[in-house]
Amino acid sequence: MKDQNPEDKKIFKDLRGRLPKSYYSRDNIGHMGLKVDYYSHITSPLRRFSDILNMHCLNTCYFQRPTDYQLKKLEQEVIKTCEYINMQSNSIDEYLSKVKKKN
């Protein structure tokens, strides 16, 4: 966003202000923008997991002022978690390719 010209920023801000904030509930109220009566929102759990990992790293590095030892420990944690996420992603890809072959 920082490379956008002021007019683009103004348009984006105006559009964002016109859209209602997401609201999550057990009641299915549809989707206003898609004009459908029933709607369910999902995201990839793996993507959410990496989002949480990123927030953890930012929190640790920005707010906690870690020591070199803590940074090394965090780095090892990130490597291990990335390996796990990639392993899960590969398992999902393998499963989806098998499903496609059946159809």
Any overview of this molecule?
The longest helix has 35 residues, at 68-102. The protein contains three helices and no strands. It has one domain (6-102). It has helices spanning 6-18, 45-63, 68-102. The protein is 65% helix and 0% strand. With 103 residues, it is mainly α.
Question: What labels would you give this structure?
Answer:
single chain; mainly alpha; 65% helix; 3 helices; 103 residues
Shape: flat
Helix and strand run: HHH
Return the average pLDDT rounded to an integer: 81
The computed structural class is: mainly alpha
Strand content: under 5%
- As a percent range, the share of helical residues equals 55-70%
Distance between the termini: 42 Å
- Unreliable stretches (pLDDT < 50, length at least 5) are none
The overall number of domains is 1
Largest sheet: none
What's the number of helices?
A: 3
Radius of gyration: 20 Å
How many E-type strands? 0
